[in-house]
């Protein structure tokens, strides 16, 4: 799609689709494998989740009755839920923004030609390649309040006087988790954006150099607009994923101290898995689901508008 | 330990539905594991050639099972347990049972290690809730006993193990295995929180191991100001189960409790408890012998600095002993002592009781066989085996005194007084919900310093949970 | 501008900007390498230090003394290669099927006349948004009724569903960006849609396919929660579960974990080095330039 604009002054756009009759069984058959794979795993659990969210099922007790919206009312008056909700939104916003910016910077650098680019590209992916279970523990040690390398470095650089208690203080804990997440998932953004940048033809760069545009102007007026759809799709996936942040929080702080890093996933996990309150837990996951849909729709609308802008 | 793996191959099928257990059991035999696995790999390799590639092929292969005619027809039962390992694995112990007699054959199904205890709990509950008799025998964390008993998943065992027999176990454990007057679990192994201290540092001070919190604070302060130790006293306050364990020992050491014996009265906002939590807060903020980092520490992060020689005192479980005496791992070999945790003046020390215990599925179709099996698993001989081979501390007083243990795991006997004094966490079938409230509110109390208010909130919330 | 000269001499292939802008590239690249690899190097250094050093008050970056006991531990004592094999089987299969299904679907959505394509895209995205922790339990019941617990199948099926939305969406984006004229030309030559797809679209989108494949590969390589819930024996457990299994009751063998994570990360790094050629070729070099 990024190319669409480029084309618009070359060929007539409004693509003519390959008509149905060329493909006998119909194009829907092509979609079938993918849709079936996704549906097989998702539909039943989602419906079951919805159904459970209207019941007071707790696995370890005999109660299991229909209570209508009871769980939802309980949830909306649950201050811990809102606390987790706010943290999740804060986390999602901050980490998606930072990751997009950083990812874009990295992608721009890596799309240039220079010696050793292959190595840098491979290096860039390392954080994403380490299993999250390990990353979480690793960051636990790096940011350890007493013997952590980060404190050690900051102290030797004279940036801080005393050790910062990264995870043990309610003021820093969420921020530290955001840093860990940015480190871990920026490569995802960078890689997608890098591939996106590849679709922008060199002829455009050529043109802008001839026009005397600076690198900055070239980026701002030509590459960025063309990259926008990729950027939106990538950050949408990132945001949706960040919204479900779980491992990092669970391993590093368990939601503490004093609930200051509790996010929706850990909160739901505690109700679903630890307390086995399937009813209430399902209501929680349904609310997460709805929030995610809102996020996706917001991105989707924006994306469609952008695509139209560029496409026509 | 990886031999365990093959056993569980039986599991999927058994889980499908137990009717055709018959056909299954003849195919699988533990004695056959090695050939089976080799065969399996071979099979995949060969079949792989026929398919596009090894990877794609193995996807579609059914689990390979080889038939083997069993000579007799023993009663088949299943056993689910979290994974523990040492010189031996649980699978090997189960194997020993299977070959020791030919009436009962046990299939072991391994659950994740106890470090993933939430998953172990969830997996177990999911199976038990179906009430189809699978697994026949399971092991449960001590805090789940009330929950499993109240849900009537665990079979009451009183008629099989009378009071006389139960006297051979530590009374605290038997109490924890009892729910509303009925014995619903059989003791396996015990663990408890304890105080590790640096003998060498206290000798320099001319002090002995502290018995009260006051003594601990004094000596810790002296050691810190003399530059002998970076930290005074390390414990765990991460918002997780371990915080409740620590809480129980602090509150218990002031004669307080979280729930009354009836499981309904909430006593967490009583003076004794408030005073104890205030002490936890003061250790960090006022006396400053505990770094603020404990607010995000569970067992391992707090163990590190202690075995690294930086701390004077540590509250932790028995596993630390072995590490602290291991030269490859510790800089404090031979400098560490263990005593029960300190207490408030004129009160008694209290340690949090931990460990896994056996349970028999109330829906089991082979109850007799299941009971026979747990009887063997909990017998003195098997307990001794678990102690020497896997390092799990016996729950039978007599076994703990066995000279073999003195030889293999000498620390266990030193810990005996600690185990005897250990007390359980709140006993209620709603424990999983209660603990979440405690974790959140006590963490809040420790960070904000507003102890009374936080505990009052905890009380209100817990009351709402346990009253139903 | 002097850059033009430079530019003329080096025809674009990954466009090169005027030299005064390029001075910044190397510091930037250096920063990227440090930022990304720093913690990993530290991990590597951890993996060759004896346990006692790891607990010492001041962290050492340069390991002394060096030991390989952790690597011996994980392979000899903990059969780590078996987890690696399981992971490789599950991940490779997942990635290949995912790319096949996903690219065909994306092709159909992007280039064929399908009504309600955004509805379908929305559906694909929508179902994947249900919190994963909430689908573990129902799927567990489903899998156990099918007798699929402790199989590669169940993991592959799940990872496929988790990976497909991303693959479909990203490839959809790229496929849309390939000029429609190409299809038409081929169609005039009498090519069928699948021929167009396999002969023209797919080769042209190689960078995108490689990129999404890589993302998909790493995602299933690292997945933990489902693997933990659905597999209970070493014949099927994947690497992250294997690493989690190192932990005893409480004791975390940090050196072993570091060694294991070095071992699991290296193949990925190597793979990226191999495939990065493909990430840059394709679209830029190919047909897009009219």
What does this structure look like?
The complex is a heterotrimer of chains A (312), B (468) and C (290). Chain A has helices at 3-8, 28-52, 70-76, 79-111, 117-129, 132-142, 149-156, 173-198, 202-210, 215-243, 247-252, 264-274, 278-311. Chain A has a single domain, classed as MetI-like fold (Orthogonal Bundle), CATH 1.10.3720. Chain A contains 13 helices and no strands. Chain A starts with a helix and ends with a helix. With 312 residues, chain A is mainly α. Chain B has two domains: 67-191 and 354-421, Periplasmic binding protein-like II (D-Maltodextrin-Binding Protein, domain 2, 3-Layer(aba) Sandwich); 192-353 and 426-466, Periplasmic binding protein-like II (D-Maltodextrin-Binding Protein, domain 2, 3-Layer(aba) Sandwich). The model of chain B is unreliable at 1-71 (pLDDT under 50). A five-stranded mixed beta sheet of chain B has the order 2-1-3-13-6. A four-stranded mixed beta sheet of chain B has the order 14-7-12-15. Chain B has 468 residues and is of the alpha/beta class. Chain B has helices spanning 4-7, 10-16, 21-25, 33-50, 54-60, 90-100, 117-128, 145-150, 163-166, 171-176, 199-205, 213-225, 241-252, 271-285, 299-307, 319-324, 367-377, 380-390, 397-400, 403-408, 410-414, 416-421, 431-448, 451-466, and strands spanning 75-81, 104-110, 137-141, 178-179, 182-183, 186-187, 189-192, 194-198, 231-234, 311-316, 336-339, 351-354, 356-360, 393-394, 422-423. With 290 residues, chain C is mostly helical. Chain C is 73% helix and 0% strand. Chain C is built from 15 helices and no strands. The longest helix of chain C has 32 residues, at 80-111. The radius of gyration of chain C is 24 Å and the shape is globular. Mean pLDDT of chain C is 79; it is low at 1-14 and 281-290. The interface between A and C is large, with 118 and 124 residues.
Write the layout of secondary structure elements.
The complex is a heterotrimer of chains A (312), B (468) and C (290).
Chain A: H1 3-8, H2 28-52, H3 70-76, H4 79-111, H5 117-129, H6 132-142, H7 149-156, H8 173-198, H9 202-210, H10 215-243, H11 247-252, H12 264-274, H13 278-311
Helix pairs in contact in A: 2-13, 4-8, 4-10, 5-8, 8-10, 10-13, 12-13
Chain B: H1 4-7, H2 10-16, H3 21-25, H4 33-50, H5 54-60, E1 75-81, H6 90-100, E2 104-110, H7 117-128, E3 137-141, H8 145-150, H9 163-166, H10 171-176, E4 178-179, E5 182-183, E6 186-187, E7 189-192, E8 194-198, H11 199-205, H12 213-225, E9 231-234, H13 241-252, H14 271-285, H15 299-307, E10 311-316, H16 319-324, E11 336-339, E12 351-354, E13 356-360, H17 367-377, H18 380-390, E14 393-394, H19 397-400, H20 403-408, H21 410-414, H22 416-421, E15 422-423, H23 431-448, H24 451-466
Parallel strand pairs in B: 1-2, 1-3, 9-10, 12-15
Antiparallel strand pairs in B: 3-13, 4-5, 6-13, 7-12, 7-14, 8-10, 8-11
Chain C: H1 2-9, H2 19-22, H3 25-47, H4 51-54, H5 69-77, H6 80-111, H7 117-127, H8 132-146, H9 152-177, H10 180-188, H11 193-204, H12 206-222, H13 225-230, H14 239-246, H15 254-280
């Amino acid at each position: 799609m990024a190319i669409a604009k480029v084309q618009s002054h070359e060929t007539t756009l409004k693509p003519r689709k390959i008509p149905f009759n060329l493909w006998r069984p119909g194009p829907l058959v092509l979609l079938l494998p993918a849709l079936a794979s996704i549906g097989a795993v998702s539909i039943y659990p989602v419906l079951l989740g919805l159904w459970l969210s209207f019941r007071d099922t707790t696995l370890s007790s005999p109660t299991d009755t229909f209570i209508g919206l009871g769980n939802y009312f309980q949830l909306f008056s649950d201050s811990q839920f809102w606390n987790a909700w706010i943290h999740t939104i804060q986390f999602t916003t901050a980490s998606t923004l930072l990751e997009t910016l950083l990812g874009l910077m990295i992608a721009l650098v890596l799309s240039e030609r220079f010696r050793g680019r292959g190595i840098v590209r491979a290096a860039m992916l390392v954080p994403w390649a380490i299993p999250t279970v390990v990353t979480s523990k690793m960051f636990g040690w790096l940011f350890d309040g007493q013997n952590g390398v980060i404190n050690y470095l900051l102290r030797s650089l004279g940036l801080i006087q005393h050790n910062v208690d990264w995870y043990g203080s309610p003021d820093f804990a969420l921020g530290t988790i955001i840093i860990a997440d940015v480190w871990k998932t920026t490569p995802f953004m960078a890689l997608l954006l890098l591939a996106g940048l590849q679709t922008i033809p060199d002829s455009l760069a050529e043109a802008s150099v001839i026009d005397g545009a600076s690198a900055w102007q070239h980026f701002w007026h030509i590459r960025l607009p063309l990259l926008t759809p990729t950027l939106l799709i990538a950050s949408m996936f990132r945001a949706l994923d960040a919204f479900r942040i779980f491992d990092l929080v669970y391993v590093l702080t368990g939601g503490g101290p004093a609930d200051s890093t509790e996010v929706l996933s850990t909160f739901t996990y505690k109700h679903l898995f630890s307390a086995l309150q399937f009813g209430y837990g399902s209501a929680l996951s349904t609310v997460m689901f709805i929030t995610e849909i809102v996020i996706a729709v917001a991105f989707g609308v924006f994306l469609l508008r952008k695509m139209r802008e560029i496409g026509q | 330990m990886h031999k365990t793996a093959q056993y569980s191959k039986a599991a999927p099928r058994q889980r499908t539905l137990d009717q055709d257990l018959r056909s299954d059991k003849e195919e699988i035999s533990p004695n056959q594991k090695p050939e089976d696995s080799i065969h399996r790999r071979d099979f995949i390799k060969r079949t792989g050639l026929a398919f596009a590639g090894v990877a794609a092929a193995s996807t579609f292969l059914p689990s390979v099972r080889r038939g083997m005619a069993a000579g007799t027809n023993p009663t088949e039962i299943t056993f689910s347990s979290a994974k523990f390992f040492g010189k031996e694995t649980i699978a090997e112990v189960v194997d020993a049972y299977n070959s020791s007699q030919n009436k009962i054959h046990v299939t072991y199904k391994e659950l994740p290690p106890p470090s993933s205890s939430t998953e172990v709990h969830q997996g177990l509950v999911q199976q038990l809730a179906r009430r189809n008799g699978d697994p026949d025998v399971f092991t449960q964390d001590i805090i789940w006993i009330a929950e499993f008993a109240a849900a009537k998943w665990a079979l009451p065992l009183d008629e099989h193990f009378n009071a006389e027999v139960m006297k051979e176990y530590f009374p605290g454990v038997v109490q924890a295995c009892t729910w509303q007057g009925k014995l619903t679990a059989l003791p396996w192994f015990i663990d408890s929180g304890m105080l590790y201290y640096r003998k060498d540092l206290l000798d320099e001070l001319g002090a002995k191991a502290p018995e009260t919190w006051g003594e601990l604070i004094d000596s810790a302060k002296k050691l810190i100001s003399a530059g002998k130790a970076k930290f005074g006293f390390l414990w765990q306050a991460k918002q997780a189960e371990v915080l409740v364990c620590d809480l129980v020992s602090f509150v218990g050491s002031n004669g307080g409790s979280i729930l009354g014996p009836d499981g309904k009265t909430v006593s967490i906002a009583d003076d004794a408890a408030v005073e104890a939590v205030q002490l936890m807060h003061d250790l960090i903020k006022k006396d400053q012998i505990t770094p603020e980092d404990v607010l995000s520490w569970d067992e391992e992060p707090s163990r590190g600095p202690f075995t690294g020689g930086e701390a004077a005192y540590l509250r932790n479980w028995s596993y630390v002993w072995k590490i602290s005496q291991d030269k490859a791992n510790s800089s404090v070999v031979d400098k560490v002592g263990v005593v029960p945790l300190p207490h408030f003046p004129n009160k008694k020390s209290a340690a949090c009781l931990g460990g896994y215990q056996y349970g028999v599925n109330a829906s089991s179709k082979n109850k007799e066989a299941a009971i026979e099996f747990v009887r063997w698993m909990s017998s003195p001989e098997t307990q001794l085996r678990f102690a020497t081979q896997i390092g799990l501390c016996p729950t039978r007083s007599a076994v703990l005194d066995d000279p073999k243990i003195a030889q293999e795991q000498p620390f266990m006997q030193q810990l005996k007084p600690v185990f005897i004094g250990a007390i359980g966490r709140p006993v209620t079938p709603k424990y999983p919900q209660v603990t979440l409230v405690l974790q959140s509110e006590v963490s809040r109390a420790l960070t904000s310093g507003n102890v009374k208010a936080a505990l009052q909130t905890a009380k209100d919330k817990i009351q709402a949970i346990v009253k139903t | 501008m002097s850059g033009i000269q430079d530019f003329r001499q080096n025809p674009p292939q990954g466009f090169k900007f005027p030299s005064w802008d390029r001075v910044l590239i190397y510091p930037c690249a250096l920063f990227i390498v440090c930022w990304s690899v720093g913690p990993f190097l530290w991990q590597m250094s951890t993996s060759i230090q004896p346990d006692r050093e790891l607990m010492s008050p001041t962290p050492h970056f340069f390991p002394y003394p060096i030991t390989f006991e952790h690597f011996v531990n994980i392979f000899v004592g903990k059969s780590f290669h078996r987890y690696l094999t399981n992971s490789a089987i599950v991940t490779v299969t997942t990635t290949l099927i995912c790319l096949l299904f996903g690219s065909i679907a994306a092709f159909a959505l992007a280039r064929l006349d399908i009504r309600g394509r955004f509805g379908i895209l929305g559906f694909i995205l929508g179902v994947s948004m249900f919190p994963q922790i909430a689908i573990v339990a129902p799927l567990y019941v489903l899998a156990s009724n099918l007798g699929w617990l402790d199989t590669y199948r169940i993991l592959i099926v799940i990872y496929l569903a988790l990976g497909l939305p991303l693959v479909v969406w990203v490839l959809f984006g790229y496929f849309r960006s390939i000029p429609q004229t190409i299809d038409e030309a081929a169609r005039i030559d009498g090519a069928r849609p699948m021929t167009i797809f396999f002969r023209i679209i797919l080769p042209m989108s190689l960078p995108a396919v490689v990129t999404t494949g890589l993302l998909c590969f790493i995602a299933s390589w690292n997945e933990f929660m489902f693997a933990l819930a659905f597999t209970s024996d070493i014949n099927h457990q994947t690497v992250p579960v294997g690493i989690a299994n190192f932990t005893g009751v409480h004791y975390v063998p940090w050196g072993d974990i570091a060694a294991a994570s070095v071992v699991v990360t290296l193949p990925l790094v190597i793979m990226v080095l191999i495939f990065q050629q493909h990430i840059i070729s394709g679209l830029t070099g190919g047909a897009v330039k009219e």
